[in-house]
Write a structure and sequence with these properties.
Largest sheet of chain B: 2 strands, antiparallel
Mean pLDDT of chain B: 88
Low-confidence stretches of chain B: 56-60
Structural class of chain B: mainly alpha
Radius of gyration of chain A: 22 Å
Distance between the termini of chain A: 63 Å
Order of helices and strands of chain B: HEHHHHHHEEHHH
Helix content of chain B: 55-70%
Helix content of chain A: 40-55%
Radius of gyration of chain B: 21 Å
Shape of chain A: globular
Number of strands of chain B: 3
Oligomer: heterodimer
Chain lengths: 458, 296
Amino acid sequence: MLPRPRPPRWPLFLFLVATAASAAWLPAADASSDGGALAAPNSLPPAAGPATGLADSAALRATVFGTPPDEMAPLPASVPLTEIDIQLPWENPVPAVFWFNKKLRVWLSAQKKPAPLAIVIAGTGGDGNTSKLQTLRAALYGAGYHVLTMPSPTFPGFIVAASRTGVAGDLRQDSEDLYSAMQAILAHFPRRVRVTDIDVLGYSLGGANAAVVKAIDASQGKLRIHRAVMINPPVSLFTSIGRLDRLFALSIGSGDAGIERLYRQLYAELANLYRASDRVELDEDFLLGAAAAVLKTDAEFSAAIALSFRLDLVNMFFAGDLYAHTGVVVDPHHPPQVGDPLEKTEMTLRAMPFSEYFARVFSPYYLAHRAHATNASLIAENRLDIVAGALRNDGDYYAQTNSDDLILDKSELRWLERTLGDRIVVYDHGGHLGNLGDRRQIADMLDMLAGRWHRPAP
Amino acid sequence: MILRLALAALGLAALAGCAAQTVDIRSLPSATPAADNATAAESRAALAAALANETTEPAAENGEPPPQFTPADAPSMYTYDPWERLNRATYRFNARFDSAIFLPVANGYRRLPSPLRSGVHNFFGNLTELSTMINYALQWRLGKGARSLGRFLVNSTVGIGGLIDVAKRIRLPNAPTGFSDTLGTWGVHPGPYVVLPLFGPSTLRDTIGLAGDIGARYGINIVDLYRGPFWKTGSLDVVDAVDERANTPFRYYETGSPFEYDDIRFLYVRKRLLEDTGLHRHQPPKKPAPGAPAGQ
């Protein structure tokens, strides 16, 4: 059999974004010598383009590019990896179109000796093996922890296999589902893995989940979770998501037309770059270079961030609509079967912001299932406030965030600082998760987990 | 031969499907974060250097910039897939086969020492080089064809029968092409999207191209490798396939998404259409028919 064209792993645009890190570590000298498309974004003055008003240029670039390889914390040479697929006893009947999500999949990297266990939860839409989880896993394993990485409760694989409701996005319900899943997984740990202590961590939405999981455990006591570290957590879920919706509307436009415009523009740019090059294959190297040429203005970086979030939302929206029988895109009486075309459904969902999910799936479902709930109460319950007392009084909660994180506004950042006091570190720069894995973030995270972290004097 | 393989695989996949349990624990090849990070830093530095060069030299072969694409020339966001039901069924079969057999075997292979694996990879890559050369000749891209011939000669001799890709180190990197690209150069359209058993995403033209490429490998038959009993040629193909799988970082349903089939189809067809624009570099873009899905 012959080598065949490889199917790319991510949607094309995301592929561009994910590989865009190409430009982040380009030496500044290169940028000045050709003065062209390949300037190092981090060292450039803000490029011209419609400002989003939601985040500054540096924050947008850091968010897209992530930590450059040469600024990464030292990582171990080899990390053992075990994949665990588990069927949970409370699963709802698995809908036909989700046949492949029957079991929850998590990843374990176990030490040979007895060691503390770090459970790490992914951010919105992430599975249990995202590149950010891989970085955290490597750093934690290198520091002597067993590491269990788990998908976000908003990941379709989790929604189908581990959610009791099928309607993801409720901070408390999602965290309860996570907590139950953790217990089931720990009960099936390989016998050779000896756990001395348990800590939880999470990035982005996973950070908020981690904090609530620890709070639930404090009252139920089934796992005896010791410390929790939140990395770039949201404070109000729906405010943060509202900001991403606005970012989408501002940078891409609304609905179908905006997405189609973006797609056509990107296709034309790629075609021109490809034809101007002498390449014979549109491979990873080409995309890496193209990303540096295509992503230039604030609007383009904003579009990349907003679109990647929107593509995650599509799956959660579809699953919620299917389980809640709300009929937005899934006919409750005739749900799609295995093999049915879904192109139109996906296109329709891509055009819908999170506010539609809230209004047409989330809110109808929870209003019907929760006594005395109102829209206002649903929004209020989806804030870290629900564990404010624990965050304030229990010395085992920690947080790391950035002053330019685009999912927080100033008042939310102040709330985090007031509530956590000495147990939060706020870096000047990094946008949303743009410094995850760098030396300082990892060193501080490990200090926090070991209970030896002290806020540096200003 | 491939049919027999496919039938055997089908049976095994069905067996594996019956053995579902509450908990499956699978040990995977170890991750190598330090080396991965070093590779990332290295390849990005190399790319930065390469791109700096590209911007200073005229990129197009004759110095004239190719006619520009505009957003209106982009194909529809919808994709031509008249055999969708069959394709989706094949996609599911591929996913099951992959998780039951192909991937576990590839993961076992990934535990072998890395020089051995790269030797296997380079060896099969080198075998394709001659048919690559022939295809470049048929496409009238003689410079590229000469490069393939050069690669084949250098790697077969200095590179010990193709085990080491020496040519890459003397700036003759691999530039693959196949019979489908040749058909494309001659003006054959990609045709409908097709999901092939075991091979995965394809188009009608890519399928014919693949058959041609396999035929070429058996036809060229360097040092009589592809003659002899079934077990011999069959095991060569299996080793090649396992090596290819181990080098492909794709995992079926890793996205957990019900739209994975649609997303892969979207990407595959756009990737091939973009590559086709490169086959006709100096012609103005063809206007897509209004309302027609991409690939029709």
